[in-house]
Amino acid sequence: MPIYGLIDANSFYCSCQRVFEARIRTAPVVVLSNNDGCAIARTKEAKQLGIKMGDAWHLIRQRPDLKGVQWYSSNYPLYADMSRRMYQVLESRVPRVEPYSIDEMFLDLSGLPYDLPAFCRELRDEVRAVAKIPTCIGWGPTKTIAKLANGIAKDRPELDGVCDLSREADRQAYFRELSIGEVWGIGRRTAEKLQRAGIQTIADFVAMDSRAARSMLTVVGARVQAELRGQSCLPLSEVAAPRQGLACTRTFGRLVDNWTDLREAVSHYATTAAEKLRAEGMTASFMTVFIQTNPHQKDTSWYANQQSCGIEPTSDTLVLITEALRLLRRIWKPGYRYFKAGVMLDGLCPAGMQTGLFQTRDPVKSSRLMDALDAVNGRYGRGTVRPLSNGLDRTWRARQAMLSPAYTTRLQDIMEVKAW
Amino acid sequence: MSGAYAGDRTTGFASPASDSTEGPIDLSEALDLHRPNRYPVRVVGDALAARGILHGDILIVDTAARPQSGCVVVARWQDQTIVCEITRQRGAWWLRSGKGQDAQMHPLDPAHDSEVWAVVAALVRMKI
User: Fold this and answer.
1) N- or C-end of chain B: fewer Cβ atoms within 10 A?
2) What is the mean predicted confidence (pLDDT) over B63-76?
3) What CATH number corresponds to the domain at position A262?
4) Distance from CA of B88 to the nearest CA of A (A)
5) Closest among A283, A252, A268 to A382, alpha carbons compared
6) How much is the pLDDT for A358?
7) Which residues form the Peptidase S24/S26A/S26B/S26C domain (chain B) (predicted)?
8) Are A262 and A337 within 8 A, CB to CB?
9) pLDDT value at residue B3
10) Buried b (16+ CB within 10 A) or exposed e, B4-20
11) Structurally, how many domains does chain A consist of?
């Protein structure tokens, strides 16, 4: 019988901030979304103060009872590196690890010659000691059960961060207690539908006739039911599926009403998208550019548009910028205050696979220039050398007023320690 | 970097070293920076000068290593992250300041806000 585990970091982004700042180790910590918009990660101290997921920062920052809260802009280079450390620790102890999201990883615990509760406690201690991240682990015969077990480990402090659902009898007890909405893959809509049909708990759903489950919730729901019954339907995938498309879209730090700023922003997004392409060794053959005003702002006129076109397969920053600006020119309308823009690339293919019959550019020259660009930016930091079209002042950039240093990925940002 | 000359692809006489290029030494490899337990930190202050650790030095610290008496560690002490010596005396672990003769000691006690964060494993000084 297979055994899957799920290890999940507690308030991951906040925990990453705490690794490098001793003074916030017990303080309420909140990490904000891109552009310092709303709360996306909260420590338990912050949750106790009543801060909800998605609370807008500009609405709650002045609340007198939140004076002691430590706010942070999201620092993705740091979180990615800490996620990498967590993964490497796990990979050194567990045969197969699936990085499911930046802060949760599935583990293949099948056939390990250890006492699993003791092993999982050690694993948790090691992640805590090496990557400095607190976690919870749950496990069972399927991924869906492992995910549920993880949630139980998180919600019940008396379990000390681990929850074993590998035994049928243990599962039954929890299944009778927990609502169907707690299950991975059962969304709010589906849960409501089930509840209307009298299915309240997980036990009710597991006991439901499987043909009825399928006809009510399609094959997806039937699979969730089978997984909850202990039949594994979702295998572990160690590598992410190759990308179909790739996008770089952002909300601006302030509304943008002139062509120069908009052009710079779109040029910057094309640059970032091209970097992502090259990092994965891909080329793109289809591009979309879109712009829009704020749909929530009712007092000003609303406008949104997009344009797409096929392009000669490339990952060259300069070519992609040219194409993106050509598309932007077609949809740009003066007189609007733009709120968001983006560049999306599709038709991805491994570089070097497609050699067009009538190439209009020199691929060798292009790849040497891009290699040099990536090498400089890799060494001295993102954006050290960038096309002038990306702009110099870049006032449209997302707000990151409370950004912490990139403690582990930039030499000038590493943690300072006081000699004593 | 593709296309860079590394002693291999010569235009006239074939390089006898074309199968033997090894590239420059990679210090991040030598210092094990790819491992999850290695973190670079920067020293502030000269209190550990006697141990050869100066203000501005980069220390490579290891969060998986077991501290031994007399080694230099990065420690959490209340709201601070410090670098100091660790010592075992009278059956207990102590943080010891690096200031020679009249060195101060502080008991190591994770329950009371002092714990070892990592053990110092290597030192990098970019400018002499």
Assistant:
1) C
2) 95
3) 3.30.1490.100
4) 17
5) A268
6) 60
7) 9-119
8) no
9) 59
10) eeeeeeeeeeebeeeee
11) 1
At B19-61, the pLDDT tens digits run 888 888 999 999 999 999 999 999 999 999 999 999 999 999 9
Residue A74 in tokens: 């999201």
Q: How far apart are CA B57 and CA B114, in angstroms?
A: 23
Q: What gap in Å lies between CA B96 and CA B118, rounded to an integer?
A: 15
Where does B27-124 sit in CATH, by number?
2.10.109.10
Structure tokens at A375: 């090498």
Do A94 and A109 contact (CB within 8 A), yes or no? yes
B contacts of A373 (beta carbons < 8 Å) = none
Report the C-alpha dihedral over residues A57, A59, A65, A70, rounded to 10 degrees. 10
Asked whether residue A355 is domain-assigned, the answer is yes
In a domain, A354, yes or no: yes
Does residue A182 form part of some domain? no
Q: Residue A353, SS3?
A: coil
Does residue A418 belong to the interface with chain B, where contact is any CB pair within 8 Å?
yes
Quick: pLDDT tens for A313-332.
888 999 999 999 999 999 99
The residue extents of the domains of chain B are 27-124
Residue A218 corresponds to which tokens in the numbers above?
């399609």
How far apart, in whole angstroms, are the C-alpha atoms of residue A357 and residue A335? 43
Query: Looking at the DSSP assignment, which residues form a beta bridge with residue A173?
Result: none
In this complex, the residue of B53, B58, B79 whose CB is nearest that of residue A419 is B53
